[in-house]
Amino acid sequence: MARRTNYNHERRERDRAKQAKKAAKAAAREERAKIARGELPEGETEATSTPAPADPETPGGTPA
Known about the structure:
The chain is mainly alpha-helical and 64 residues long. The chain is built from two helices and no strands. The chain has helices at residues 7-37, 46-49. 0% of the residues are buried. The mean pLDDT is 81.
């Protein structure tokens, strides 16, 4: 027996994926703009410029 289609769920999943892709592109565009303006050094990214908070669950505070 074939499954019944759930168009609303499938559309929400497509929209969620599209929004995630747009957000990633916008973040990359903003990072390139900061590098062009000279706010970040050439090899440094936004993720490496600020230290990540320590995770109290893992020993040593390093994320797994």
